[in-house]
Structure formats: structure tokens, C-alpha cells
Design goal:
Layout (H helix, E strand, L loop, with lengths): L6 H13 L1 E4 L2 E4 L1 H7 L3 H12 L3 H17 L1
Antiparallel strand pairs: 1-2
């Protein structure tokens, strides 16, 4: 059964993906303060961190590019 996610939550997640993921010394990290400021819950932050662990740098770049497009669209 598909999960319904509120538009605001999706936009917050896209915002964090676009602006809250930083790469330092070849390591991708999530800016936790920024994620909380945008409104992600602790559970959402944990889920995003787990997804980052399992996502390649190329995939992250593609997601970031697509999130810019989606944000303009909505």
C-alpha cells in the first residue's frame, strides 16, 4: 500500500537534500542543525542519514538536480 506524504514534508525534504547535504574531504554529511531548522523530525533525519549511507555521490548529485526542478514546478 502506498504511503501518502504531505506536500510540505516533501518540500522540506527536498530543501534539506538541496542545501543541507555537504561534502567535506570526500565524506558526505547531513547538516543536522539545518535539517532541524527546516522542520525535519528526528525520525526523518535518521531516515535521511540512512539513505545517505546507501546512496552514491553520483546518485546524490542527480537527486539534487531533480529536486531543483521539482521545487520550481511546485
Amino acid at each position: 500500500m502506498p504511503t501518502t506524504i504531505e506536500k510540505d514534508k516533501i518540500l522540506s525534504l527536498l530543501e534539506v537534500i538541496q542545501n543541507g547535504i555537504v561534502e567535506e574531504n570526500g565524506i558526505t554529511n547531513l547538516n543536522l542543525d539545518y535539517a532541524k531548522e527546516i522542520g525535519l523530525s528526528n525520525k526523518g533525519i535518521n531516515n535521511l542519514q540512512q539513505a545517505l549511507i546507501e546512496t552514491s555521490a553520483n546518485d546524490l548529485n542527480e537527486i539534487e538536480s531533480e529536486s531543483k526542478y521539482l521545487k520550481r514546478k511546485y
